[in-house]
Amino acid sequence: MNNFGFIKVAASSPKLKVANPFYNAEEIKNIILEADKNFAKVIVFPELSVTGYTCADLFLQKKLINDSYIALKNILDETKHTDILCAVGMPILINHILLNCAVLFKSGKILAVVPKMYIPNYREFYEKRWFTSGFEVSHIEEIDLFDEKVPFGNVIIEDKNLGLRIGVEICEDVWAPIPPSSFLCVNGANIILNLSASNEVVAKSDYRRELIKGQSARCICGYIYSSASVYESTTDLVFSGDLLICENGSLLKSSERFKRESQTIYSYIDVDRLNSERQVNKTFIDSLNVSNVKYQTVNTIFNKLSIDGFDRYISKTPFIPSNKQEIDIRCNEIFNIQVAGLAKRFEHTGLKKAVIGISGGLDSTLALLVTYKTFKELNIPPENIIAITMPGFGTTDRTYTNAVNLIKSLKCTLMEINIKDACLQHFKDIGHDKDIHDLTYENTQARERTQILMDIANKIGGIVVGTGDLSELALGWCTYNGDHMSMYAVNASIPKTLIKFLVDWYAEKTDDKEAKNILKDILDTPISPELLPPDKEGNIKQKTEDTVGPYELHDFFIYYAIRYNMPPEKVLFLAEHAFSDKYDKEYIKKWQNVFYRRFFTQQFKRSCMPDGPKVGSVCFSPRGDLRMPSDADSFIWLS
């Protein structure tokens, strides 16, 4: 079965008894068996999970060390039939040197042993009393364990078929100025396991979470973090069983801390996506030049790969802020980026007037709001915004009224120029029958409007502010040298779903009740270029999404197919998962094919698009983000 590059992973914090390796081994074994039943392929346990972290001077007891080995052997024997890579923590004695180690094993076989490098010895920590840093034994590359030679030290576990490379660090390692995971990742590790015993003090968990998220972002990796449970608590220290699974700066799953039972969390990590991000990010690749650490590679193969019960959250609207607490911050930031870009263009040219076509639709509404805020920032009166409504053959009373009322509510200068006569004259000039409502009929109107905007801008000494958005550019849903063109396109890297969200956000924030009502009605209006005549009742007949498909699907395709370079079958799988309550697979696939077909055939429009601010992670500017041949063949994406 195609796993689409996903691997299911787990982090567990078991109940334990300090200094009782046999009790602890039984708990660990049971959790491994359960995780294997749940199709997890990697599971991480806390630091020194076989013995307990807080054994203190008991680590000097030969009995504890010997019995921890026996307990480990019990775990190996009872998990031979599983297909899951496990990382448990325990003390390992090498030549009278005691090391705090992670033991990695799979299907009853030890694959590697990795020592803790940074041994904390400050405040409440005094580990150097018992343990030696892995740096002191860096010359050792293998050890004897259960009469077998086992790779030791700087090790990466690899499954070549999955493109999976796993590295390990232990607790304090990630708190170091240059964590071992940084070197592991530039040497190819794409998932980091951290076995930890991090005690709790006020606000430490917030810092720890940001630390792990940040390291996963910096290293473009998956990061599985497991910390000791409340049963580790003793003397002056309290532990909480903090579990985290992160991917490239995003927290995929976390535990409820201070639980008094064993706890395991699961999530799918997208290994292909991580590898793709690294391939694009040349700074990441260049970092290999500063790494002089050499690693052993230990090969393994995962069998029985499955994504049955795929439960990773996939948002229908990946461009829209998902954190409700951050919505104001994010939306303000988007506006500020748009405003800053447009303001610089006005300051650079020395011009004081903007020309913008207002249709009563979403795109021109956002562009007008951005221009209005820009003029406010520059202390230019709003009447210097020449907002032009240009009724044509498809303009309805609803959109016309909303356009006019919005312009008036913002106190901009309203101009109305009816384009019907000019278009009819043009039809005569080129010999086109006005009753044939084809592309010529539609595009004539779009180009006439753009000509008016450009000529008025020349006449008054102003800039034509473009209104087209990212989704339209992706699909080529714009008239070449019509609405495709402007002097500065403020919406060029904002997808349609986000534009709708931003307009709604603005409506909720404004104190102007009249403006709010207008914006809400614009939001409720069907998306349409209004280039074909309305129906008999005067309502919009030409609806964009009837022709090109739902914008929410296309924006989803943009995010995964273009932002993350995912193949069509994986994009389809994710879309099917995200929209399972709304669209079936065949419906999604139909519009996915439309997306790829239009994306490839319409590149020529993007190759000469005007300047506009890069706002999010996707931009189609040929000057920065997308260098694509205009005549590339879409066959393999459609087949």
UniProtKB/TrEMBL annotation:
Q: What is the top EC class of this enzyme, as a single word?
A: ligase
Q: Where is the active site?
A: 47 (proton acceptor), 116 (for glutaminase activity), 171 (nucleophile)
Catalytic activity, per the record?
deamido-NAD(+) + L-glutamine + ATP + H2O = L-glutamate + AMP + diphosphate + NAD(+) + H(+)
Q: Which PROSITE patterns match?
A: CN_HYDROLASE
Biological or metabolic pathway of the protein: Cofactor biosynthesis; NAD(+) biosynthesis; NAD(+) from deamido-NAD(+) (L-Gln route): step 1/1
InterPro entries listed in its UniProt record: C-N_Hydrolase, C-N_Hydrolase_sf, Gln-dep_NAD_synthase, NAD+_synth_C, NAD/GMP_synthase, NAD_synthase, Rossmann-like_a/b/a_fold
Binding, L-glutamine: 122, 198, 204
Binding of deamido-NAD(+) occurs at: 443, 472, 477-480, 605
Q: What Enzyme Commission number(s) does the record list for this chain?
A: 6.3.5.1
Q: GO CC annotation: what is one?
A: cytoplasm
Stretches assigned to the CN hydrolase domain = 7-271
Molecular function in Gene Ontology: ATP binding; glutaminase activity; NAD+ synthase (glutamine-hydrolyzing) activity; NAD+ synthase activity
- What does the entry list as the binding residues for ATP? 357-364, 467
Q: Which domain of life is it from?
A: Bacteria
* UniProtKB keywords: ATP-binding, Ligase, NAD, Nucleotide-binding
Q: Which GO terms describe its biological process?
A: NAD+ biosynthetic process
| Keyword flag Lipid metabolism | no
- Give the record's family classification: In the C-terminal section; belongs to the NAD synthetase family.
Q: Which NCBIfam families is this protein grouped with? A: nadE, PRK02628.1
**Which PANTHER family is this protein grouped with?**
GLUTAMINE-DEPENDENT NAD(+) SYNTHETASE (PTHR23090:SF9), NH 3 /GLUTAMINE-DEPENDENT NAD + SYNTHETASE (PTHR23090)
What is the documented function of this protein? Catalyzes the ATP-dependent amidation of deamido-NAD to form NAD. Uses L-glutamine as a nitrogen source.
Name of the protein in question = Glutamine-dependent NAD(+) synthetase
| Organism field | Caloramator proteoclasticus DSM 10124
Q: What is the lineage of its organism?
A: Bacteria, Bacillati, Bacillota, Clostridia, Eubacteriales
